[in-house]
Amino acid sequence: MSDHKQGQTKQEQLDAYRVDDKGKKMTTNQGLNVSEDEFSLKAGVRGPTIMEDFHFREKMTHFDHERIPERVVHARGYAAHGVFEVYKSMEQYTKADFLKEKGKQTPVFVRFSTVAGSKGSGELARDVRGFATKFYTEEGNYDLVGNNMPVFFIQDAIKFPDLIHAVKPEPHTGIPQAASAHDTFWDFVANNQETAHMVMWQMSDRAIPRSFRMMEGFGVHTFRFVNEMGEATFVKFHWKPKLGVHSTVWDEAQKINGKNPDFHRQDLYEAIENGAYPEFELGVQLISEEDANAFDYDILDPTKIWPEEEVPVKIIGKMTLNRNVDNVFAETEQVAFHPGHVVPGIDFTNDPLLQGRLFSYTDTQLIRLGGPNFHELPINRPVCPFHNNQRDGYGRHTINVGQVSYHKNALAENTPEPASPEEGGYEHYQEKVEGRKIRARSESFKDHFSQAALFWNSMSEIEKQHIIDAFSFELGKVESKEVQQQVINMFAHVSLEMVQEIAANIGVTAPKGGGSPVSKVSPALSQENTTKTAVTRNVAVLLDNGFHTDSVISVIHGLKKQGIRPFVVANKRGAIVGEDSNTVEANASFLTVDSVLFDAVYVAGSKQMSDRFYQQATHFIQEAFHHCKPIGAGSDGVSLIEDCRIHQAKGVITASDVDNFVDTFSDAVAQHRFWDREVQV
Ligand code: HDE
């Protein structure tokens, strides 16, 4: 089978389950043609419905049972299909077949998610994002079940239920939804100081991404690569988005949750439908067994990163998401990830968080998907054949033929039989383990603040300000003064300057002593240093009847050429008539969209602007300005920019001031935001 063929195989497999009901006659689930679907069977047209109505009963019973429990965490998610291609053979380090050969392609399915909120919650919550990838390899499914932050809140899985109980809505009120800005979460933080590093990430801009397409992904734990010789190397996995890592601002994120709570899924869906396939490069950090103890942190501690400047990220392949799901329930909802779904050449370590996850993920699918046969659901089926003696259970699809369902046997010549390692049988890495049974934290896991300080030190001024603002918002919502004070005292170990400002904002006492001895910096942690491109960015084009047709049409074309997506926004949807009677179609109106849904604004205006347009457009521009977005103005739009008194600010480009407006404006769009406006504010 060629590699390309392999890439199609998962889709061919899914094709067997895809059904298009369009143009077909309606039947019951038993295949009986239905003659009427408007009226239940009654005793007389005004009489009672009768039990005999099997069609009504079947339809209603199915409906009554349509829901399954949402995921206990990561309930709100969205997914897509794609392909992973290897740039560089990893054979030296791992025998994993899907990483062995340059150019090899493997189909993938990726689900992005928030963590705390329910299935219907807003997508712009301040939260960690899940980034779970299922590789359908020829050796079985490999799941890389990661997050968009490289560390975690806790060091031992036994504390996970406590963490999640603390962050979920408080039990006595059911408030707040999809938010950590409440007493129980911060009480947990203050009393579990291993959370310090992760909380710094969560209070940073990483927690409010601009798009799933613009976030990094991390395997978080340290895993092992194992090669053909049985030699192991410690590995951490990274996904690097080709579009760079970009975020929204908090005021904007909160408004997006109201204006379009589906903002992230819609962004992903539309990018794929438009052929702007999201791409992420896979990187690995490698540490040899000999060097395992050479660092000032324990490499098995999931609250620690391996700074990229110390352990470089080798880029080894690329994932392209190129197909939306056909059915969100069948695919996105029923997909079952598990960090224990591994292939030969990828193995675990003794990270106590990872060890606990190895139990939790199958267990949770049993309740969520209703039994042990979830691997038979089309989205979960491996592309390679699978055989064993497991049988029966709810919803079993496979018809296992034959007499024998046990091992060892003679009746079926002792098959199915385990494969030797040479034949691809999975062999656990033979790590030597010895120790006393003990419930305790390793001494080497006890430094909770050095890397939290490293993260803080590595932020740009504006990123630091955002962290202070986020803490001030979150703690500002906490009712208990004691909890607020404890958190302030705790984070004094990260930065005194930081907590002094937060304490002043929330009205508690700032500690006088404290601070961190760490002065180290890791530039890779700052989003200032990320890739910047205008490609796929949404620009609102504001215009009114009587707009300057030539310049507007040429700007719209020019922006499209740069890979930007212009959307015409006007008082009303439909045709807007230019000064020469030519029209453009407004894709949206001020009623249907808002500036928070766009990356930038181009103000085209009109010579004879209506009062309504003037008022709506100025509000739109001012909000975009406040969120530091690039703003461009054509001839008739310049007066609006001047009225808003922003024409001299950075990132505000007026056509009259520059030679090549489209190029200059596109460069500004690529910058994402002009933060010095916030500093001025
Ligand atoms: Fe999860 N996690 N988790 N988690 N996790 C789940 O499994 C769990 C952790 C992550 O899109 C659940 O199928 C424990 C770290 C993602 O379907 C559950 C611990 C990381 C997803 C579960 C962790 C993750 C989950 C809920 C502490 C990043 C969504 C539904 C030891 C490396 C996958 C489900 C999807 C989902 C347990 C910590 C990532 C209950 C016990 C660390 C991306 O099994």
Features of the shown structure:
Cytochrome C Oxidase, Chain J; 681 residues; disordered N terminus; ten-stranded antiparallel beta sheet; Hemocyanin, N-terminal domain; 16% strand; Catalase HpII,  Chain A, domain 1
Q: Please, could you describe this protein's structure?
A:
By secondary structure, the protein is of the alpha/beta class. It folds into four domains: 3-64, Cytochrome C Oxidase, Chain J, CATH 4.10.91; 77-380, Beta Barrel (Catalase HpII,  Chain A, domain 1), CATH 2.40.180.10; 449-528, Catalase, four-helical domain (Hemocyanin, N-terminal domain); 532-680, Rossmann fold, CATH 3.40.50. Helices cover 28% and strands 16% of the residues. It has 18 helices and 18 strands. Helix 11 (461-476) crosses helix 13 (496-506) and helix 12 (481-491) packs antiparallel against helix 13. The longest helix has 17 residues, at 352-368. It is globular, with a radius of gyration of 28 Å. CIS-heme D hydroxychlorin gamma-spirolactone 17R, 18S binds at residues 71-74, 77, 111, 113, 130, 132, 145-147, 152, 157, 160, 220, 335, 337, 353, 356-357, 360-361, 364-365. Residues 71-74, 77, 111, 113, 130, 132, 145-147, 152, 157, 160, 220, 335, 337, 353, 356-357, 360-361, 364-365 line the site of CIS-heme D hydroxychlorin gamma-spirolactone 17R, 18S.
